[in-house]
Specification:
mainly alpha, 125 residues
Length: 125
């Protein structure tokens, strides 16, 4: 069974964003600053934001099931992609596998799921 054009259109943003993440992870020495006081907070926020957006894009692509289950599935898939991203980084010179990064990727996914659920509840009132 080949994918329908609408399915391709729905998944394209998520797949493209995953490609951007992959390309950025492949850059040796990728840093905003050499000052850890600047680099660390920016890196943490970047990880959470990037994977929050990925969660939302995956949730948009998934159409089957109830909304809260789609969101949960999207969050889990984004967190798993965060793990694979760290495994990929371990193969790049000057980049490392860091559990902390996986935690912030997952935190971003959870924040996206919770935000959508809270906003949905507020709107439905």
């Amino acid at each position: 069974m080949s994918p329908t054009p609408s399915r391709i259109v729905r998944w394209a943003p998520a797949v493209l964003w995953m490609a951007v993440i992959f390309i950025l992870s492949a850059q040796p020495g990728l840093a905003v600053s050499h000052d850890p006081a600047v680099e660390l907070p920016i890196r943490r926020v970047a990880h959470a934001s990037v994977f929050a957006l990925l969660t939302l894009l995956i949730a948009y692509a998934v159409r089957a099931g109830q909304a809260h289950r789609r969101l949960l599935a999207a969050g889990v898939l984004a967190a798993i992609y965060g793990l694979t991203d760290e495994l990929h980084q371990a193969t790049v010179p000057t980049r490392y596998f860091e559990l902390e990064d996986i935690a912030f990727d997952s935190l971003g996914a959870v924040a996206a799921v919770m935000s959508v659920l809270v906003v949905g509840r507020l709107v439905s009132r």
